[in-house]
Amino acid sequence: MAKQFDVVVIGAGPGGYIAAIRAAQLGLSVACIDAWKNAKGGPAPGGTCTNVGCIPSKALLQSSEHFEQAGHHFAEHGIEVKGLSVDVARLIARKDTVVKQNNDGILFLFKKNKVTFFHGTAAFTGQVDGGWAIKVAGAAEEELVAKHVIVATGSNPRALPGLPFDEKQVLSNDGALAIGAVPKRLGVIGAGVIGLEMGSVWRRLGADVTILEALPAFLGAADEQVAKEAHKVLTKQGLKIQLGVKIGEVKATAKAVTVNYTDAAGAAQSLAVDKLIVSIGRVPNTQGLNAEAVGLKLDERGFVTVDAECRTGLPNVWAIGDVVRGPMLAHKAEEEGVAVAERIAGQHGHVNFNTIPWVIYTSPEIAWVGQTEQALKAEGRAYKAGSFPFLANGRARALGDTTGFVKVLADAKTDEILGVHIIGPQASEMIAEAVVAMEFRAASEDIGRICHAHPSLSEAVKEAALAVDKRALNF
């Protein structure tokens, strides 16, 4: 006999598991289905983010940053390190431990909130009395019936045409996080978030890294001034970044990969590397849902079609996260998950796409929220800009990391903050102040008049806000 639930969530990534927990908090009976497996075949909830994305990449970034600091910067502090080496196996094992801690944490939260978890793949089988019939294929098959279904099946890495991932020589983000030894030569196709972060990890550990990007502009989604600074700094660190390239034939053997391409000047080039990371975007994961059989509509790019409130065209079927329109960000999926759970419970969930922060965890970190300066210019909106360099920040000097700046953009008449852009140490943490300010439609004057602890990196945000009115105090 089928098990009945108020809500069944398909997928336990950041959007799915958060939606399940919030729905349970609101008094609904909830089940969550997820197919991820750990090395032993057990459940590994958390989706791409926890298993092969956000969490493991940050673990490796931290480890490689320690190695970089010990090898190049500890001496500035009077700390001498001799015989420095890296044990890649232990580095990867630590990353795996961090992932497992997060997997286990989600399973604990399910138990705490009385969310029933099913380990397996889920497919719609039809509409029945009481809602939707869902089949779970796992160690044991289950039949569920849900009044509401939330599709949160995430996304998969996009492969180059004719070049599938083997995760040995041609790597997705998954394989890039599990390289067994530091490659002498590493190629990366795509200078986006994944490409830059993974390129940075292995460059710090000793690889000669070349990044090939098809677009003529570096980090086109970021503020131009920030992107220019990032390109300069990352190039100085040793990343070889080529823009405006056109990828041709790629040949992979058991020992190497050769990438033939045309550079920005139109000249034919060839790059031979030991490993190739392909990070050219992600595609929605709807395979196996049996969407066609129940009439779940997908758009021309394969995304589940939803309205502004994440409703699909089917009654009481919702979709969130990477599988729908909008930025493919874990925190965007979480916000949609909470909003949908609250809408199902009769409340008014809310997601503001204008205040979703973006972060790239390179060193320096890059973070922004709101509009870029080039977007405001294109819109013809009158604005004021203020910036403040970390070079003039006391805490940054003490840290020994004065790269970058904070930039605040505000409306020329009302002074409302329209965008904040940061490149520098701990930008990922500092951007939260800007998000809060923009949610409350604060003016740059508001941030400029708020007391910030001294010395702190956050003072640079205050100083940039003051600079909008040309009255920065420390620069």
From TrEMBL:
InterPro entries, alphabetized: Class-I_Pyr_Nuc-Dis_Oxidored, FAD/NAD-bd_sf, FAD/NAD-binding_dom, FAD/NAD-linked_Rdtase_dimer_sf, Lipoamide_DH, Pyr_nuc-diS_OxRdtase, Pyr_nucl-diS_OxRdtase_dimer
Key word Cytoplasm present: yes
EC number: 1.8.1.4
Catalytic activity of the protein: N(6)-[(R)-dihydrolipoyl]-L-lysyl-[protein] + NAD(+) = N(6)-[(R)-lipoyl]-L-lysyl-[protein] + NADH + H(+)
Main EC class the enzyme belongs to: oxidoreductase
Cofactor binding: number and manner: Binds 1 FAD per subunit.
Main subcellular location: cytoplasm
Domain annotation Pyridine nucleotide-disulphide oxidoreductase dimerisation: ranges: 356-465
Source organism, top-level taxon: Bacteria
FAD/NAD(P)-binding domain mapped to chain residues: 5-337
Chain segments annotated as coiled-coil in the UniProt record: none
Keywords from the UniProt entry: Cytoplasm, FAD, Flavoprotein, NAD, Oxidoreductase, Redox-active center
Subcellular location field: Cytoplasm
Signal peptide (residue range): none
Cofactor annotation: FAD
Keyword Signal attributed: no
Protein family according to the UniProt entry: Belongs to the class-I pyridine nucleotide-disulfide oxidoreductase family.
Additional facts recorded: The active site is a redox-active disulfide bond.
PANTHER family according to UniProt: DIHYDROLIPOYL DEHYDROGENASE, DISULFIDE OXIDOREDUCTASE
NCBIfam families documented for this protein: lipoamide_DH (TIGR01350)
Protein name, UniProt field: Dihydrolipoyl dehydrogenase
Native organism: Pigmentiphaga soli
UniProt gene name: lpdA_1
